[in-house]
Amino acid sequence: MSFDPIGQALSALNKLAGNELLHKYGLYQPTQKIAYRATKEGFRAAVAIGRQWKEAQKLLKPERLPKAQRKNDLFDLSISEDQQMVRDTAQRFAKEVMRDAAMKANDAAKAPEDFAAQFAELGLAAFAVPENLGGAAAESSIVTQVLVAEDLAYGDMGLAVAALAPIGVANALAAYGSADQQAKYLAPFAGDKVPVAALAIAERRPGFEPRELRTRARIDGESYVLTGEKTLVPLATSAELFLVAAELVGRGPQIFIVEAATAGVSVKDDPSMGIRAAGLGSLKLDEVRLPRTALLGEEASAVDYEQFLDRSLLAWCALSLGAAQAVLDYVVPYCNDRKAFGEPISHRQAVAFKVADIATELEAMRLLTWRAAARAEEGKPFHREAYLAHVLCTDKGMQIGTDGVQLLGGHGFTKEHPAERWYRDLRALGVISGGVFV
Amino acid sequence: MQLDIPKKLQGFVDQARAVGKEVFRPISRKYDLAEHEYPRELDLLASVLDGMNEGDAGAGAGAGKLKQEGRPKRDGNRNGTNMSTVLGLIELCWGDVGLALTIPRQGLGNAALAAVANDEQLKRLHGKWAAMAITEPNAGSDSAAVRTTAIKDGEYYVLNGEKIFVTAGERADCVVVWATLDPNLGRAAIKSFVVEKGTPGMTVARLEHKLGIKASDTATILFQDCRVHQSNLLGSAEVDVNKGFGGVMQTFDNTRPVVAAMGIGCARAALERTRELLKGEGYQANYGRALWSSSAIEAELYRMEADLDAAFLLTLRAAWMADNGQPNSKEASMAKAKAGRTANSVTLRCTELCGTLGYSESELIEKWARDSKILDIFEGTQQIQQLIIARRVLGLSSTQLK
Q: Which CATH class is domain A305-430?
């Protein structure tokens, strides 16, 4: 492991910052300033240039997408023609653009320069924006978004996160934003230049529990003041807008709209094990002063935080399906072609049964994800279903990831094959909160 | 897309649940202890089930109703008898798997008849309880290796051989027997015959003593120069080497989701009771915290529930495909594989989580943990399901992937 001076310094300073005595004797703030200076070469001010967020129109009330209508309540696994059309587009893009770009983007720990523009051409972001705000969404389309997320992740999970993170922000604004917030922040997602944006929930510590945030918001006159650090934020260093989860003292976790150009916001790259093409980074909030209108929904009760977490988890479940399907579709021809002891290794039960289990558990993951998505889209409770889908996708997705490498043997361990990347990508399910949102 | 149970089947599910709760549970331990004793309480129940099915022409549920439907018209979507049968059986097996297996006229043989019998046979055998006799002492999972012979003699076939593990073999009115017309011709020569009880040459040799599902009798049946009229042959009498096994194996695509359903019911019972018992100890498991900030016991409950729901949905999918005329061989095996292993692991884990309560005969959990083992074995073991799935996914034949 190479010596990382910033990491070492952060590590030492973090120990200091966690010290109760500092709080007790009022030494916390000065210490933070030292910490900030010491690390500012790592953290830098977030994108300062860019768009002016302003209301292009006036909304009298927030636009909420109506829940999806069904012909009847029969069990039905069929995919509608409209959904299939969108899927065809996403699948083509995954195959023609994403799969080829994946490894390079992995190495660079960010998506290629033109990727966002290419993806924007598909026009998918408009499906997150209600028609009255210039978008194309007439009703909730969580199932379609889940299908699309899988298809894009089939191309590459990291790039899929890069593509979908801004749409996730749009989804959240559509679901919870106030009229003014929607006019100001949501409408641009239907425009020519889709804002670069991401959800920031996760914090850097083992056993992170998204219901117990250390990022704090306090009320100070007409402002909210946010302090804390968020990790595993997609597009962190290029984003113009963040939705940040923070504990509002006395009111529990809330979501805040944070423009990247706000004073006190700094970002740094923080490449991780996998989904590197998503441009993962950390977001630091140092006494960031926000107007009272920055609280998503503008009321502390506007966002159902459990549902917010669930819709994010659902997006991750969908992404894991794409990566797991990519593993399956890769190992099948490999095991049929690869010969050992005079015959294809797929002729051996030890190999074939692993493939059978990959296929079976993948379907299991898919059905649990679809059930939760379908319930969410219809406006039914889906917390239990999303929770279980996430549990299964985390466990079985990782099993599929590791079996994928195993089936390729030593070759699977090398970068000659994408199996090792899927292995790294699929580990994300166990650690993630936020980032994407359907 | 919609993956919940439709309202129109909910009433049926509730009825089946009531049977599981009011009829099966109170006598569950009794027939676990009194192995081989006939559960006479079920005669009345069987009549009720018959009545429900007769009164509901074209719909209903049960082994005798299972079959692959034609394709619905464009945009059509059916939730039919395959789905209602698995849903009903989940509830019955939540009550007791062994008892569900010995409901008169709901045998696997009835499922075989529904799948492959012709109209004349269906009419003649209407109202009969049919068991299924496939396995032999030297032919278990390798059902193509059956050595019971059926030799043509005029209008009759003469059956000779020994069948083991025949569920309801003593209690059923007739037995669907797999036999080969010519052991040298392999699978294609294997045919199934209905043999009614009392046919000379067919005898029940003995009943097994088992680990679980003791309420269900498991018989060894001998055929000694047993003459069966040719009208009792199911399907085509032709030996078509190209067509192979299709006819007789077709039954399994319909019955595997049914056995998967048994596993789901059994494991649900265990998980539900375990949650109840743990709740008394302060374990909530209400999905309120991330997996890794829950207690180890709660995390285990979530994992079991996720696996069990996955098995449930895989089973519904297989049944839904059959209801909608979609070939479902791979999906039926996925359902059976997932449900079989999950039922077994969940019930065993529940025993463990409940400690001595889980292990004691004062609760039913230890019984469910014994009952569940067979569900990963009969109607195709875990490994047979994996073989079927693997061959389909890898595109391999049975000579390539043995």
A: mainly alpha
Contact flag B6-A75 (C-beta cutoff 8 Å) = yes
pLDDT digit string, tens, across residues A255-294: 999 999 999 999 999 999 999 999 999 999 999 999 999 9
Angle ∠(A200,A203,A209) on CA atoms, nearest 5: 105
Average pLDDT, chain A: 92
Express each pLDDT in B60-108 by its tens digit: 677 777 777 788 776 689 999 899 999 999 999 999 999 999 998 888 8
Nearest to A432 by CA among A325, A267, A309: A309
Residue type, A317: C
Q: pLDDT confidence of B50, banded at 50, 70, 90?
A: confident
- What does the pLDDT read at residue B245? 60
Whether residue A347 and residue B402 make contact (CB cut-off 8 A), yes or no, is yes
Interface probe, candidates B292, B345, B383, B394, chain A, greatest A C-beta count within 10 A: B394
Give the pLDDT band of residue A112 (cuts 50, 70, 90): very high
Q: CATH 1.10.540 in chain B, residues?
A: 7-106
CATH code for the part of the protein at B7-106: 1.10.540
Neighbours of B48 (CB within 10 A): 13
Domain B122-234 of CATH type 2.40.110.10:
yes
Which architecture, in CATH terms, is B246-394?
Up-down Bundle (1.20)
Residue A352 is nearest to which of B83, B288, B401, comparing CB atoms? B401
Asked if the ipTM is above 0.95, the reply is: no
> Could you tell me the pTM of the whole model?
0.92
Question: What token pair was written down for A55?
Answer: 């209301």
- The Cα B396–Cα B402 span in angstroms is 9
Q: How far is CA B361 from CA A53, A427, B33, B351, in A?
A: 69, 42, 10, 11
Interface of A with B in 204-233 (CB under 8 A): 207-212
CA distance A262 to B133: 76
Number of residues assigned to chain B: 402
- What is the percent of chain A where pLDDT is above 70? 90
Residue from B3, B9, B338, B382 to probe the interface with A (highest A Cβ count within 10 Å) = B3
Residue A63: which of A179, A165, A141 has the closest Cα? A179
- The token duo for B295 is 């207690």
